[in-house]
Structure formats: structure tokens, C-alpha cells
Design brief:
CATH topology of one domain: 434 Repressor (Amino-terminal Domain)
CATH architecture of one domain: Orthogonal Bundle
Oligomer: single chain
Distance between the termini: 60 Å
Largest sheet: none
Helix content: over 70%
Shape: flat
Radius of gyration: 27 Å
CATH superfamily of one domain: lambda repressor-like DNA-binding domains
Length: 233
């Protein structure tokens, strides 16, 4: 298989390989079932990234071994095959479901403890080190469970004091939390939003974030077919 330049640029690389093979751009376009100007547009950067099947056909007609093309497209140009995309999406969805499944999480913790015990038996580290690792896992789980309980207690306090305000807060929080096991976008949005300590923002930053949310909510309201004025904040 001919070398591909280390700095990935599929249009440039196709032109170099095509020239070495002595294949005209119009001819290659016809071979892959595209309009005669397709390869020329790709080489000039007018087409940035071809779809996987088109890219596969291009490299096949340029002489690459078919059993290696998928790896070439992924490693050099980050063009994924449909099967890979499907597998990654299925894996991500399973990860989301696992994160929401207490039975799975308990089984995972049991496996981690068992693995630590096996390493201890094999002498990979001392009993003291193993105990510290197991204690850390158990302490972390306990700490997180306590914080979940604290959140519930604090929200209950505010529900009692400000039910008119917290009715929407709780309903919307419930909606997005319960959707995370079914909707990858909601899962990523929620986890990225709370990846950092939001209380550390300055008041100006907090106000700016709220204003941005208002604007984006309005855009999404209209994009989703809403009419009239969106609900006020």
C-alpha cells in the first residue's frame, strides 16, 4: 500500500495518489459513480470530507487493499464506517443505561473489589494498598449517596418555602434527569453542565449564562415549531 502523507488532507492525498496511478480526475469520478467534477472539487477543497462509502470507493480505485481501507480512512481522516458509527452509538447508549442502573453499578463495584482482592492474592500490591483502594471505592459511593440525599432534603425545604417557584424547577429537573437514560444529547448536556462547580461563577457570569439560556430557549422554541411568545423565565 502506498504511503499517505502524515498531515491529513484527503483532497491533496487523493490528487497525489491519483497522479501516481495516472488516473484522470474525471475518470476517477466516473469510476466511483459521481459527477465528473467530483474529484476535482474534492482535491480543491470544495468538498471537505466525503462520506465513508464514497471515500472507500476512491481509495479502492487508487489501488489500496480493501481490507485496509477502513483503517486508513479512520486513522488518517477520521471518516468512520457506518458499522463503526452504529457500534459506537450502541456502546454510548449502553453506557448511559448502565449509569442509570443501580443493579449494574452495584455489580460493577463488586467486580472492582474482587479484582483488588485478586491482585492482592497475586502479590501485585500490599494488603495496606489494597485496603486503601477498596476503602476509597466504598467511601466514594457512600459520599455520593449522601450527597444525593442532601440534594433531596434541600429541595424539599425550598418546595415547602417556595412551591410556586420550585414547581417548575422540580418538574424540569425531573424531565431532564429521567430522559438521560434514553437521550444521549440530554445526558451529555446535563453532565457537561455540572462538570464544574457553577457556584464559582461571578454574579455577572451567572447573569450572562441566564441571558444566554433565554436566547437559546427562544431559538429552540421557534425551531421546534412553537408559535407566539415562548414561556417567560
Amino acid at each position: 500500500m502506498e504511503d499517505i502523507m502524515s498531515e491529513s488532507n484527503i483532497g491533496r492525498d487523493v490528487k497525489e495518489l491519483r497522479t501516481k496511478k495516472g488516473i484522470g480526475s474525471r475518470e476517477l469520478s466516473r469510476l466511483i459513480g459521481k459527477a465528473e467534477t467530483y474529484i476535482s472539487q474534492l482535491e480543491r477543497g470544495l468538498i471537505k470530507t466525503p462520506d465513508y462509502n464514497t471515500a472507500f470507493e476512491i481509495f479502492k480505485h487508487l489501488g489500496h487493499r480493501e481490507d485496509q481501507i477502513e483503517d486508513v480512512l479512520l486513522n488518517f481522516y477520521y471518516i468512520k464506517s457506518p458499522l463503526r458509527v452504529e457500534a459506537e452509538e450502541a456502546w454510548e447508549q449502553q453506557e448511559i443505561e448502565n449509569a442509570q442502573d443501580p443493579v449494574y453499578q452495584n455489580a460493577k463495584l463488586d467486580r472492582e473489589i474482587e479484582a483488588h482482592e485478586q491482585r492482592l492474592q497475586l502479590g501485585e500490591y500490599s494488603e495496606e494498598e489494597a485496603n486503601r483502594s477498596i476503602d476509597w471505592l466504598l467511601d466514594t459511593e457512600t459520599d455520593l449517596n449522601n450527597k444525593v440525599r442532601d440534594i433531596g432534603n434541600e429541595l424539599n425545604f425550598f418546595i415547602d418555602k417556595k412551591m410556586d417557584v420550585f414547581e417548575d424547577v422540580i418538574n424540569n429537573l425531573h424531565t431532564i434527569v429521567m430522559s438521560m437514560s434514553k437521550n444521549k444529547e440530554d445526558y451529555e448536556f446535563f453532565t457537561k453542565l455540572f462538570k464544574r462547580d457553577l457556584s464559582k461563577f461571578t454574579n455577572d457570569s451567572k447573569n450572562q449564562i441566564v441571558e444566554t439560556i433565554k436566547e437559546e430557549y427562544k431559538k429552540s422554541f421557534e425551531a421546534n415549531g412553537g408559535w407566539g411568545k415562548p414561556p417567560t423565565f
